[in-house]
Amino acid sequence: MALDLGMPILVVDDYQTMVRIIRNLLKQLGFEDVDDASDGTGALAKLKQKKYGLVISDWNMEPMTGYELLRHVRADDALRTTPFIMVTAESKTENVIAAKKAGVNNYTVKPFNAQTLKTKIEAVCGA
Amino acid sequence: MFTRQRAGVSPAAAAAAPAPRGGASTASLVSDLVEIAEYIKRLKAAIAHLRANELRNDRLPMAHDELGSVVTATASATNRIMEVAEGILAIEDDTLAGYRAKVEAEVFQIFEACAFQDITGQRIAKVVDALGQVETRLSHFATVVNVRDGEMDQEEARTRARRETLLLNGPQLKGPETPQDAIDALFS
């Protein structure tokens, strides 16, 4: 199954530079419908307004972290099946295990390259 | 300097003095006072050596400002490099030579933007030096005064608890603790 390049993607990161990097990588992969939020609270509001095909989120943000966002998403009947990739500098095993238990679909440690992100998106979105 | 003489009691007189009611001798009392006086003397010297005003008024604000400048410079350079890179992606030209000339012109702008690293490196070196000074003085103070740490304030305790609950560990010093391959294996 080919990737649906038209699916809306939500990028969540408090560093605008990282948002810009991920946006450019997604553009390079062919995705055009990309929105962003600077923390979990803003992301949750956007997720309730629009149906996203994928969330790519950082972990360490204020006031709501990516981990909390993930738990909110998985606890919400309308959002629970939304694919979720964590892209973060948090590389401790306890973080990876906690994210896995909370229902994350994939996990990438920063820094990463376009090919890594593409592989993750393909794995999560079933290409 | 606080001494037995300044306290108005000589050691001989103190030793000969009758014990006050309650059992404690005057000699013991004087000895305690002398000990306290010596401790205060050491404490004053240690506080002076700490040069807290210089740290508060000079070194720490300098470190704060330098790190702020580093953050600004790195953000500015990153934005500039990304702007140029995005510009390169958008370059169009009918001829290979024309395309090459445009790309080269942009690439040299990336080289220029990378010059930030020299300046930020020097700024960070100043901060590292300042932190080394603070560490040395605090370490000396803690040793001389035999400081015991008090309880952390509520705000700090809340912040620490949040970090522990939400696993906010931050980047590891020597690269990722868990290699990406191991993470991938967990999700395969």
Automatic annotation (TrEMBL), chain A:
The modification 4-aspartylphosphate is found at D58. SUPFAM superfamilies: CheY-like. The keyword Cell membrane does not apply. It holds the Pfam family Response_reg. SMART domains: REC. The keyword Cell cycle does not apply. Residues 8-125 form the Response regulatory domain. Keywords: Phosphoprotein. This is Chemotaxis protein CheY. The lineage of its organism: Bacteria, Pseudomonadati, Pseudomonadota, Alphaproteobacteria, Hyphomicrobiales. The gene is cheY_1.
UniProtKB/TrEMBL annotation, chain B:
Pfam families: CheZ. SUPFAM superfamilies: Chemotaxis phosphatase CheZ. Residues 1-24 are annotated as: Disordered. This is Chemotaxis protein CheZ. It comes from Methylobacterium isbiliense. The lineage of its organism: Bacteria, Pseudomonadati, Pseudomonadota, Alphaproteobacteria, Hyphomicrobiales.
